[in-house]
């Protein structure tokens, strides 16, 4: 790896070594850009939102834009898989099931998703009763499925190999010879210079473990996860108080039977518009040797919500784990798992936008402004759902920084950084 010298000049500087930063580095270096990626905890750290073993890939969405974006992303995942020769996706059936008329959650609801699939002519299988769900996947106890439960099954879904994907992007970028890395360095300041005679330039002030340095970049991509304010504040923006950090809990259950038929699944068990009662899980996967005969399951709601990274109290929530194991003991066949016997409990952070939609685009110079920093783009407030889009978003962020627009713009409108309620000017309402 190339070393980084103080006052070095780069074509592209990427803040954040999570999956979106790594994907951006892949597409930037592929274009021949001298690229620096910086992470305060190190690339591949165990603190950010990209940690763990698996994520869900799905075409099933509650709106057409996200379904289109997922289709494109699937093609790019396949391309990366072929280019690197690594298994990044384990394709499988995904079942969405739950109350026929469950209110919308941040993940949608069964009826809304069905409508979107119908409008788009996307193939799926509809299971119109709890009996139909149980017949299709006997792993789900019939007694645990309410009488108004219905289901959607889609075959072009997958579990994403999290560590495999991070390594694939990183090593492919490294192989170009254009990648530079600053591990365990935090960006603490950004100066923007607009010079009408030459061109714009960003100076980043960076704190390492024992010394501070500054580097320069013509283009800037920010994908800082829950630490977004550390990058945005120097640029005159701050997330509003309606932005939140959700600390999510998950665990792995050893299987009593060897590799039973379990699909990727998501249950809309909520009865109101909160996410309480939503659960999901994965089949046994071979992404990690010690997890081969285990299944991961999680609640898609939390009792631990924070206003800022400094407020986070890491730790597993006993009440949530109790609810999760009770629910699974009811839902899954007792011959398959012992619901009380879970291992490897973990937490991971969602950065939740005020409206539950993530944010990707150019960086506005003020909240809701149509004026943007030149040569800069960001992906933040990913609201627990950006992993599936990683290759597409990496490509989009590079396009936006270099060209100021993306060929996927119309579908990306729903994630616009200039929609209302996302940002305020620093300390506007905090003093
Ligand atoms: C439990 C859980 C389950 C999920 N399930 C799914 C799923 O099934 N499907 C799906 O599509 N998505 C899912 N997601 C969401 C997905 O994992 C995230 O959207 C994605 O990983 C976010 O990646 P990122 O690169 O934007 O952010 P992160 O991974 O958080 O990376 C941001 C990085 O920026 C660095 N950074 C921040 N500020 C600075 C600074 N000032 N200087 C230097 N470095 C800085 C941080 O150290 C961090 O490493 C899930 C998330 C969680 C937590």
Automatic annotation (TrEMBL):
InterPro entries registered for this protein in UniProt: FAD-dep_OxRdtase, FAD/NAD-bd_sf, MTOX
Q: Which Gene3D superfamilies match?
A: D-Amino Acid Oxidase, subunit A, domain 2 (3.30.9.10), FAD/NAD(P)-binding domain (3.50.50.60)
Q: Which UniProt keywords apply?
A: FAD, Flavoprotein, Membrane, Oxidoreductase, Transmembrane, Transmembrane helix
The answer to whether keyword GTP-binding applies is: no
List required co-factors.
Answer: FAD
An annotated Gene Ontology molecular function: sarcosine oxidase activity
- Can you tell me where the transmembrane regions are? 12-30
Q: Which Pfam families match?
A: DAO (PF01266)
Which positions fall inside the FAD dependent oxidoreductase domain? Answer: 11-400
Q: Does the keyword Lyase apply?
A: no
**Name of this chain's protein:** N-methyl-L-tryptophan oxidase
- Tell me which species this is from: Xenorhabdus beddingii
């Amino acid at each position: 790896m190339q070393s980084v010298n103080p006052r070095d000049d780069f074509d592209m500087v990427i803040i954040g070594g999570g999956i979106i930063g790594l994907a951006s580095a892949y597409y930037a270096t592929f274009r021949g850009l001298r690229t620096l990626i910086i992470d305060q905890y190190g690339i591949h750290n165990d603190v950010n939102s990209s940690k763990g073993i698996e994520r869900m890939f799905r075409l099933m969405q509650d709106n057409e834009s996200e379904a289109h974006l997922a289709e494109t992303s699937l093609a790019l995942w396949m391309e990366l898989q072929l280019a690197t020769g690594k298994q990044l996706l384990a394709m499988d059936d995904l079942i969405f099931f739950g109350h026929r008329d469950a209110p919308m959650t941040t993940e949608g609801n069964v009826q809304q998703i069905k409508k979107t699939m119908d409008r788009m002519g996307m193939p799926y299988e509809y299971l119109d009763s709890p009996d139909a769900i149980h017949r299709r996947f006997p792993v789900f106890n019939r007694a645990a499925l309410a009488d108004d439960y219905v289901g959607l099954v889609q075959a072009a879904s997958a579990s994403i190999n999290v560590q495999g994907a991070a390594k694939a992007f990183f090593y492919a970028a490294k192989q170009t010879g254009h990648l530079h890395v600053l591990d365990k360095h935090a960006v603490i300041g950004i100066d923007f210079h607009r010079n009408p005679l030459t061109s714009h330039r960003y100076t980043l002030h960076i704190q390492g473990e024992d010394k501070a340095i500054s580097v320069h970049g013509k283009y800037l991509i920010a994908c800082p996860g829950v630490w977004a304010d550390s990058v945005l504040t120097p640029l005159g923006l701050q997330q509003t108080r309606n932005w939140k950090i959700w600390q999510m809990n998950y665990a792995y259950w050893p299987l009593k039977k060897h590799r039973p038929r379990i699909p990727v699944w998501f249950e809309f068990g909520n009865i109101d518009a909160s996410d309480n009662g939503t659960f999901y899980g994965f089949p046994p996967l071979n992404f990690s040797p010690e997890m081969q005969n285990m299944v991961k399951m999680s609640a898609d709601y939390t009792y631990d919500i924070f206003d800022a990274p400094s407020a986070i109290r890491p730790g597993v929530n006993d009440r949530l784990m109790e609810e999760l194991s009770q629910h699974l003991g009811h839902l899954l066949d007792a011959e398959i798992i012992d619901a009380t016997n879970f291992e490897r409990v973990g937490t991971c952070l969602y950065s939740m936008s005020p409206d539950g939609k993530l944010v990707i685009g150019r960086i506005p110079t003020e909240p809701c402004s149509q004026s943007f920093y030149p040569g800069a783009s960001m992906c933040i407030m990913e609201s627990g759902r950006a992993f599936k889009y990683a290759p597409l978003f990496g490509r989009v962020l590079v396009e936006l920084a270099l060209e100021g627009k993306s060929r996927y713009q119309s579908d990306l409108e729903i994630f616009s950084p200039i929609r209302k309620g996302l940002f305020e000017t620093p300390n506007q309402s905090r003093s």
